[in-house]
Specification:
Blueprint: H1 2-5, H2 9-17, H3 23-41, E1 44-47, H4 49-64, E2 76-80, H5 95-98, H6 108-115, E3 119-124, H7 152-159, E4 165-170, H8 176-182, E5 185-188, E6 208-213, H9 216-226, H10 244-249, E7 258-260, H11 271-284, E8 288-290, H12 296-322, H13 328-337, H14 342-364, E9 369-373, H15 392-396, E10 401-409, E11 412-419, H16 425-440
Parallel strand pairs: 2-3, 2-4, 7-8, 7-9
Antiparallel strand pairs: 1-3, 4-6, 5-6, 5-10, 9-11, 10-11
Helix pairs in contact: 3-4, 12-13, 12-14
Length: 443
Amino acid sequence: MSDLARLTAQAALAGMEGDEISSVELVEACLAQVEARESTIQAFAYIDHAHALAQARAADDARNSGRGVGPLNGLPVGIKDIIDTADQPTEHGFPAAFAGRQPREDAFLVAQLRAAGAVILGKTVSSPLANPGMIKTRNPLDDTRNPGTSSSGSAAAVAAAMVPVAVGTQTAGSVIRPASFCGVYGYKPTFGLVSRRGTLLQSQTLDTIGLLARSVEDLALFTDAMSAHDPDDPVSYPRGRPQLLAATQSQVPAPPRFAFVKSPFWETAEPKVREAFDKLREVLGDQCHEIELVTLGDLFHGMQDVMSAENAQHYGRLYDQHSDTMSEPARASVERGRRVSAQRYLNAIAQRDVLYETIDREILLTYSAILTLSADSVAPKMDQPFTPNISGVWTFLGMPAVSLPLIEVDGLPVGVQLVGARRDDGRLLRTARWLTRRAATLS
């Protein structure tokens, strides 16, 4: 059973298509992992075993009937608890205001996943209102350690083999950092690729739907299924039918070239993390060149202005009514946002757009991807504070990013982050797959 639960989504799908396993068997294996580890890990905010198995039986019946089935038929997926599900509660990690909240309809992305045949296994834990602070989920690799920020439940569920893929969200680094801490693959697509309709918003300029999984190909498979254009999300943009999986699995036309960017937090990263990352750079040799972006530090402060101002807009009423039960970081963000002037806000937006044009012109026309850290440390102990989120600048720039579990420090994973050009997600994931295979030859 545990072997089934540890399959990648693609391997499980191949097994079901070849009649080697059923969706019921796969879901039973995942639920067995939940039963064995959930009391310690606490990855799920809500899970109904009977309902999950009913969905799996329906998927098996559809396949056995000979009817056409979707590309995810029978595959289980976890959904972060700030994303609406019509058949399961969505409490935004904040029962003080949303206890027992039952949406009337699915979020757009959930509807897309259901249409593709996915089994919605359960709702994964989010930190309250997807803000830092009061994380109850524990890291499956070491339950004395933190699994990451707000998408902690999704990352932990994948790492603990409770589900092969889980949906998360990122406003600063809440997909990339949990992926790094838990040793799984994390993907934050281009801003607007996946609709946010039916998802709790805290920052309309930054909030992005992402995924946690066990392979780059699984990230592409599920993104293809859920990333249709949604005219009711103002940042969703028109495009043709997604083909990220095909792009990811295609051969690179030439050996990739990487632009190593230290980011503002390189010098504060743990020395062993920098040492392990430098070894990877040495392996890449002439395929990796260091590029300096001196303005990233200023951009980080601009990102904080925009995020806080928009937090104040979206959470102001909750702050006024429930400030005593909000986490300290959530309260501080609203209070800071109420002090951000319109001029500071607009200046930050303008600075972002100018820097992206520079990066696109001077780096991404020459290099396949930017290479940088996903996190500046291994997963800290549960009672230790986080350092500033080093992925926030890439989120602010709207660029796609992927975290790959390629290096270790003292037996714990540290993610390698690749960042690509806006709306060029296929190239980024193809490059990520190449780097993953290149690193595997060295282990």
